[in-house]
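can u pls check wat happens w/ zinc ion
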Amino acid sequence: MVFPTERLAVFVDGCFWHGCREHRTLPRSNASFWRQKIEGTRERDQQQVAWLEAAGWTVIRLWEHDLPEPGAQRVIEILDALRNPTPET
Ligand SMILES: [Zn+2]
């Protein structure tokens, strides 16, 4: 999900592919292959966030297990904050 006006990018990461700590279960066969693959995904995730933030974007990453309610709530709150920035005092 991308909100270009507010420069907000929302990613929903799958628990397995992105190595969620709560739900990560590595297949028993080829465990080291999978560990490497998931590590690679996590590194790419972090790079992506770094690039976007460097370009002035706000990045929200949600886990698939966060959805739908709390995740949606967080997106709405952040969108709100971006639309109505509190003047710095
Ligand atoms: Zn999870």
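The domain at 2-83 is CATH 3.40.960.10 (Endonuclease; Chain A).
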